[in-house]
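User: Let's play a game. I give you a shape written as tokens, and you guess the letters that built it. Ready? Here's round one.
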């Protein structure tokens, strides 16, 4: 069929351009606020929105990452105590990525900064009607390309999801303490949860990416 107008071509090109620009702004905001990358943040958001855990293969699909690339990113989050990997029940080959309570706290700590970015680059540039129309159109495209519509879970909605799933807000995903980590890493215990929580407070004071070294 082909394209039939300049508007059709421009729409496609502008979607790619705006997506790249938004990703660049989100990356800069997250690095400045925490030293982590926007990919780290997105991994934690996806895990939180899924009720705390996802198969690594499903997480890779949601983030359009290669399995090896995602494994590297999750390992970095494990170093910070923000996520863990555990064997999937009843599946010798499956691996689950789980967000820890420290990871949830980190996501909550970044809400104001991310909200300010969204307000700056999206909310203040569109009318309420335009924003709703854009929301619906992007959802329609996402459904076509991805097979599902994602996003939009506010912190209070995620907390409610946790409660409905029977997750303890104090222990969170770290209730799996004592379960073996994937790759022969150490047992998950209370000491690591405390250390992970302290890392949330330390991140902003550290140079970008310095806490991921080693």
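Assistant: Ready! My guess for every position:
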């Amino acid at each position: 069929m082909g394209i039939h107008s300049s508007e059709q071509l421009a729409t496609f090109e502008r979607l790619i351009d705006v997506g790249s620009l938004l990703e660049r702004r989100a990356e800069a905001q997250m690095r400045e606020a925490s030293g982590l990358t926007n990919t780290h943040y997105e991994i934690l958001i996806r895990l939180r929105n899924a009720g705390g855990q996802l198969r690594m293969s499903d997480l890779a699909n949601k983030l359009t990452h290669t399995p090896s690339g995602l494994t590297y990113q999750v390992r970095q989050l494990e170093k910070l105590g923000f996520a863990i990997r555990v064997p999937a029940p009843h599946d010798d080959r499956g691996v689950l990525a789980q967000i820890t309570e420290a990871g949830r706290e980190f996501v909550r700590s970044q809400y104001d900064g991310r909200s300010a970015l969204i307000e700056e680059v999206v909310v203040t540039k569109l009318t309420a009607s335009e924003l709703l129309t854009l929301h619906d159109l992007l959802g329609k495209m996402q459904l076509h390309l991805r097979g599902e519509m994602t996003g939009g879970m506010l912190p209070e909605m995620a907390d409610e999801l946790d409660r409905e799933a029977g997750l303890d807000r104090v222990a969170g995903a770290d209730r799996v303490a004592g379960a073996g980590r994937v790759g022969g890493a150490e047992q998950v215990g209370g000491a690591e949860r405390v250390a992970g929580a302290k890392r949330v407070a330390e991140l902003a004071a550290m140079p970008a990416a310095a806490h991921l070294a080693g």
